[in-house]
Amino acid sequence: MTENAAGWFESVRPDDPDAAREAIENGSAESPEDWPAQAVESGFAEDESDYYGKLHEATLHAAREAVQERERADDQQLVHAVRAMDDADRTANELAERLAEWAGSVYGESGGGVDYAREVAGREPAGPVEERVVSLARQVVSLADEREELRAFVERSADAAAPNLAAMAGPVLAARLIALAGGLEQLAKKPSGTVQVLGAEDALFAHLRGNAPSPKHGVIYTHDYVRNTRPDERGSASRALAGKLVIAARVDHYSGERKPELDEELDERIERIRSRGDDD
Amino acid sequence: MTELPGGVERRRVDGDEGLATRGEPVYGEPYDGEWRRWDPHRSKVGAMIESGLETGVAEGDGVLYLGAANGTTASHVADFAGPVYAVEFAPRPMREFVGVAEGRANLFPLLKDARKPETYAHVVEANLDCIVQDVATTGQARVANLNRRFLADDGRLLLALKARSEDVTREPETVFQESLETLREEYEVLDTARLNPYHGDHFAAVATPRSE
């Protein structure tokens, strides 16, 4: 009963909006009480109407700040993060190759990749050449670590910025689609045929010039529902997937509410496509 | 026609007659002087009143509003009710809602999850007259049961039920009956209605806490 008796205003000074926000956001109680009367009794408010005035200010401030914070993990930050992740990945691999060549000549070994860089980075350098090689190896390791940090950040913020799209596509593919479209709003406004080939622009323009067949998929190829569907049904699968992804992006952009039924509809659709050839 | 709550009137606004409340317009709805149109197509509570449900809501009531979205209906309720605590989970609609609440001293926005009443029971007062619930999540009746703790013994629950949120593949009527079963664990159901033609596949129920 004792821990249950505390309203949000307990130990909040009436002139401290941030303390009030903290109390509203993180406080809890098992059951409600007559908070207005308790607030007057404890001296937090002069009377009931004064209490409601203070509650109005406090809840507005708390909601405003919390919304801003949640939206700072917004789509544009996500776009920067996923591009930085790809850059860090590419650069780490390039430097790892260079390092493998150089370190191989110094230590007489034939390692490669980030794992080899980790090994070299742990060594004690002897002489100026090894100093450079070990230092370069450490840069590779640190870039690879940064890429992993960025990936973790992308996963968290894709969930916040586009919960339905992230659930359906996986957070990293969701972030790539948003980045390719230029933002969540832009993605939400694209027709699904465009989303289907996002990331396959080279192939699409070759097709439009008349030199190639039309591409069946862009980056959505990395999705399990495309990649692990039989080649002759992949076009159908990627069309179905793109259609649902656009709906998910629209729900995320216009309402922000999570709608698990979207995933189920896609699951059923893919199930039907995959079982189609089975009776032949 | 059932009796309207005090502060809600049927008035001719902008040529058409319909429900109206007194307050600052918020979403581009037609208004005439201080009266603004309450469009039942955009509001489940408006649709409940238009469907002839005896809502039991009265002027000056203390209200907990679950699923306030961008505050369209909550703003109308706040026009005639007393303190209105409005819970919304998603940040995007909440941003618009904050703008609506700024002009209404008795409207308190809470960015909270209606499935976790313990995270706002330290703010929302006890013995409220009315809970309005319009959340699009599975287990809508369970959410209502969890929030019973805020309601006075003679308080009313106005529940809007979206069948598609429970199960897209089954008959809306079956889903609705099942939800009512769950609801009866904590409430006595007083009246029900379909919200057609205002909201397809939506049902509404008016209920009051069961006495032990």
Describe the structure.
The complex is a heterodimer of chains A (280) and B (212). By secondary structure, chain A is mainly α. Chain A folds into three domains: 3-72, no CATH class; 75-159, Helix Hairpins (Orthogonal Bundle); 162-275, Nop domain (Serum Albumin, Chain A, Domain 1). Chain A has 14 helices and no strands. Chain B contains six helices and eleven strands. Chain B has helices at 44-50, 72-80, 91-102, 140-146, 163-166, 172-183, and strands spanning 8-13, 16-22, 31-32, 35-37, 63-66, 84-88, 107-111, 128-133, 151-162, 187-194, 202-209. In chain B, strands 7-6-5-8-9-11-10 form a seven-stranded mixed β-sheet, sandwiched between helices. Chain B has a four-stranded antiparallel β-sheet with strand order 1-2-4-3. In chain B, strand 5, helix 2 (72-80) and strand 6 form a beta-alpha-beta unit. Chain B is globular. In chain B, 54% of the residues are buried. The chains are: A mainly alpha (280), B alpha/beta (212). Chain A binds chain B through residues 6-8, 23-25, 27-36, 52-53, 55-56, 59-60, 62-64, 66-67, 70-71, 255-257, 259-261, 264-265, and chain B through 83, 89-95, 97-98, 101-102, 105-111, 118-119, 121-127, 136, 138, 149-150, 164-165, 168.
Task: Say what the CATH topology of the largest domain in chain A is.
Answer: Serum Albumin, Chain A, Domain 1
Low-confidence stretches of chain A: none
> Which two protein chains have the largest interface (Cβ within 8 Å of the partner's Cβ), and how many residues from each?
A-B, 37 and 35 residues
Question: In CATH, what is the homologous superfamily of the largest domain in chain A?
Answer: Nop domain
Number of strands of chain A: 0
CATH architecture classification of chain B: 3-Layer(aba) Sandwich
H/E topology pattern of chain A? HHHHHHHHHHHHHH
> Regions of chain B with pLDDT < 50 over 5+ consecutive residues?
none
Whole-number average pLDDT of chain B? 90
Domain tally of chain A: 3
Q: What count of structural domains of chain B? A: 1
Helix content of chain B: 10-25%
